[in-house]
What does this fold into?
Amino acid sequence: MTWNKNRRFSRSDALPFLAMMAGNGGNWSANWGGSRWDEEEGGEWEGGRHRRRRRMFGQGELRLALLALVRDEPRHGYELIKAIEELTGGEYAPSPGAVYPTLQMLEDEGMIAEAEASGAKKPFEATVEGIAELDARADEVEELMRRLARMGERRSKVRSPDLFRAMGNLASVIKNRARAGKLDKAAMDEIVDIIDEVAKRIERL
It folds into this structure.
């Protein structure tokens, strides 16, 4: 997009933009490239509309990913959640409500067992049966883990945590001023001037 040097933002231009930021409470990524994932295919009702959420894992894939991760090294539930989050570059973290029942299922199947460790939280490790399943499905496991890793690589290339933090701070400030009744016409005009100037500075980078 090329900056239009002859055009200045008007108050009507800024209103939808500022309302979106204020109404979103600082969650900038929800409107600008943030992703919503679910462990299972389905949806949620939001704003009176049924909003379909993207599915991260296919049938049985979370089970397979957890089994592969505990084969690499013994881990407990929270560590597995963080491992998947790190693998995807922060794009996705499975919920405890999905991870812990899946671990229980794997344990019931004899695929994992508690490993020897100090402390209250006992990590899981893959059993002989679990390793045998992973070996038999090696191609499937490799493709699944590669897919998760590619997601992390893409995110690292196009996302900047500092950028989203800064934009979130801006949204929070505007929301707080709106709640305090300080977002009148004069304040709005001044904010428009600031956004106008920042846009021109970014264009010159």
The first helix runs from residue 11 to 24. Residues 7-12, 28-36, 40-53 have pLDDT under 50 and may be disordered. The chain has eight helices and five strands. The CA atoms of residues 41 and 55 lie 5 Å apart.
